[in-house]
Design brief:
Elements (H helix, E strand, L loop, with lengths): L1 H11 L3 H19 L10 H5 L2 H12 L7 E8 L2 E7 L5 H14 L4 E8 L4 E8 L1
Antiparallel strand pairs: 1-2, 2-4, 3-4
Helix pairs in contact: 2-5
């Protein structure tokens, strides 16, 4: 995927982080259409995001046992405040951010997102606040 995004960036002049975020937003819609069972009973983005490792990734591993998935640790810091830590050797924090933005849009929520990249992008700490 990295080579494709770099080639697209060269072709279009768009920055790689912007392309990854855009693709994440788009792919969230595809996940929603293809796997509606993951969203059943979810009333807001934070409820869904908290299920990624314990529900979504477990189901993905059933379909693709060799998949190398990122991990997401979530901490509920308050009713309108969620902290997420992304870990992956692939350094796709921008893609993860785009997926989150797609999630917020799907649930019609205004969520501010700030992030801190660590370990050369292998760890990204997201701070999410719902308004």
């Amino acid at each position: 995927m990295g080579k494709l995004v770099i080639a697209l960036s060269k072709e279009t002049g768009a920055k790689v982080p912007d392309l990854l975020k855009s693709y994440g937003r788009h792919l969230f819609g595809r996940f929603l259409a293809g796997y509606p069972q993951f969203f059943a009973g979810m009333s807001d983005s934070f409820s869904f995001l908290k299920t990624i490792d314990e529900v979504v990734h477990i189901e993905v591993r059933k379909l693709y046992p060799d998949a190398e998935l990122p991990s997401f640790e979530t901490v509920e810091a308050g009713p309108a405040h969620l902290q997420m830590t992304y870990r992956s050797p692939r350094c796709l924090g921008d893609f993860a951010e785009g997926l989150m933005e797609g999630c917020f849009a799907h649930f019609g929520e205004n969520v501010s997102l700030t992030r801190v990249d660590e370990a050369a992008g292998r760890v990204v700490r997201f701070d999410l606040r719902r308004h």
